[in-house]
Amino acid sequence: MTGIGWFTIIRLGLVNMAIGSFVVLATAMLNRVMVVELAMLATIPAGLVALFRMVQITRARWGYDSDRGGARTPWIIGGMVVLCLGGILASVATAMMATMPVIGTVLAMLAFVAMGLGGGASGTCFLALLASRVAPRRRAAAATIVWMMMIAGIVLTAGIAGSLLQPFSLERLVTVTAGVAALAFIATLLGVLGVERRTVSINTTPAPATSPTGFIDGMAQIWSEPRARSFTIFIFVSMLAFSAQDLILEPFAGLVFGMNPGESTQLSGTQHQGVFLGMALVGILGSGFRLGSLRLWTIIGCLASAVALAALAYGGHVGQAWPIRANVFALGLANGIFAVGAIGCMMGLAGSGAGGREGTRMGLFGASQAIAFALGGMIGAGAVDVMRALVGTPVDAYAIVFTAEAALFAASAILALGLREARDTTPDFQTAIIAGE
Fold this sequence. Notes:
Elements: H1 6-37, H2 43-55, H3 59-69, H4 73-97, H5 101-133, H6 139-164, H7 170-192, H8 195-198, H9 215-223, H10 226-244, H11 249-257, H12 261-288, H13 294-318, H14 324-350, H15 358-391, H16 394-425, H17 429-433
């Protein structure tokens, strides 16, 4: 089967754009308001974001339930409703923190839990729908399209919402958040309605005659698949390396290279430009010119990320003469290549094996990613603090942490290479892992 066309893939990308844009707005914007406008400890919003990510371990459950129900669309729409309501509640809770900090914090915790549950359900079932409807030869481009749409949505949302928040007030914060939530919900409806009903799954492998009736049995069966288990471990290690840099790159630029806040923010923009280009590169070369498999692009992205991080560790000792902007752009480029390759492989694996299990497999991968993201930022920032206490200088502390992250990416490349060995001994693994070939 040929799977869905390009227009439908772009339509579905509206869902990812809505999820990503609203999540970033509701987390990054509220984080800034709590720390700057409300003068709260930075650990409070950081803990709320960690709570949001940890709750997404429930992705496995949402994927399993969508398999059992036989439809993804209700889960995508329902998850977006919970996500949007949680985001609105989070903005209300933030406003309450100014006068009732205890009640506001408790409500914020409930709101971030709701956002984690809603985002997990919607995001997992969205990816499962893509995995079951996109043909193997289009997966690299499909992953590129939906993630580039997400980045574009984040940029547009940040710019528009930022202008609407001027002049700032807590009441305006709630109003803008509610407006963005409404737009995100409308975009989700436009993206997903009718797609599942008018298309069929490209996975022709029949479901087993005796499907498990319980969630634990279903997860145990997926975990028993060597390819799914190996890829879940790969996702955890690689995403741990990917997320560990999030909270330390800008402080590194300030402490080691003397950049002011504006310059370090521009540096972050340079990194995202690299990510955007890396994603486009894999989409064009991987699908348009059929150069390399998704597994190969994933390995290249992991190794290139390791080299870029090792260069940052070295560059800190060189000092101002080091081309920090070019280094960070290269890191973003490598991260973009890795991200699209890994997401494409994830789509291929979720749609492999017995039919009707795409959601369960995608949920398992998503849960592994959620745990890695929740731990990565805290481990990266905590490791820098520990190393600074031990070695005394920021340069050496960041060099050690960046080197450790590079080692994690190198280990991820080795794990990805090991997936090929599993393919050789498993009849349908080639279709699963290198579906982009």
